[in-house]
Amino acid sequence: MRDTLWYHDDCFRFEIHTLTHHTRMATGLLFAALLSAGTAVAKDATLRPWPAGQPTPALQVTGLDGQPWDVASLRGKVVVVNFWASWCGPCVDELPVLKGLAGRDGVAVVGVNYKEPRDTIERFTQDHPLGYPVLRDRTGDAFKRWTPGVMPTTILVDRTGRARWRTVGEIPPDDTKLRAAIDALLTEPQHRTNNQK
């Protein structure tokens, strides 16, 4: 029996024209694994405004020391929130860009690790010194609330604590769009009225 199967999203693209009974079963299991994992990896970044009408979720996670951490503690700065994992190749590839952003005045970068054990994160950060705080999303709840399920995802939070921009995929070394968005947020007044949130 011949069937055609085609699958496409931002992270995975493949087409299979001839499916036998066994390959249909194996392909079904692959789809189930992809869809149930809830996490995909993207190589190419796209900068888009934060989704209209979607409020900024709370970001209350823990540091590597186990202490609670809240993005609200960085009000007054433009915050670059990067969701990553050590097994994510594009996440590792964009580290130099994030390190460069961490050195800017008025900008704070935080890396939120997705569900990895503390010892794995500590080994990784010893091999790859980041130069910015690493936080733990032990359950994956923050990842679900802040991202479209793709890694890496980087969110720009303005100085009032509101999510404004989101980059899905690896930030390229020659990026200008994310830097321009940060520059624009740095020039905005810090105080907004409640109806602007």
What is the helix content?
25-40%
Question: Which structural class fits the helix and strand makeup?
Answer: alpha/beta
Order of helices and strands: EEHEEEEEHHEHEHEEEH
What value does the average pLDDT take?
82
The largest sheet has its strands arranged as: 4-12-11-7-8-9-5-6
N- to C-terminal distance: 56 Å
| Largest sheet features | 8 strands, mixed
Unreliable residue stretches:
1-19, 26-37, 193-197
Protein described:
The protein has 197 residues and is α/β, with parallel strands linked by helices. Helix content is 29%, strand content 27%. It is built from six helices and twelve strands. The strands form three sheets. An eight-stranded mixed sheet has the order 4-12-11-7-8-9-5-6. Strand 11 and strand 12 form a beta hairpin. The longest helix is centred in the N-terminal third of the chain and has 17 residues. It is globular and about 40 Å long. 26% of the residues are buried.
Task: Summarize the SSE layout with pairings.
Layout: E1 5-8, E2 13-16, H1 21-37, E3 40-41, E4 46-49, E5 60-63, E6 68-70, E7 78-84, H2 89-93, H3 95-102, E8 107-114, H4 118-127, E9 134-137, H5 141-146, E10 150-151, E11 153-157, E12 163-168, H6 177-187
Parallel strand pairs: 3-10, 7-8, 8-9
Antiparallel strand pairs: 1-2, 4-12, 5-6, 5-9, 7-11, 11-12
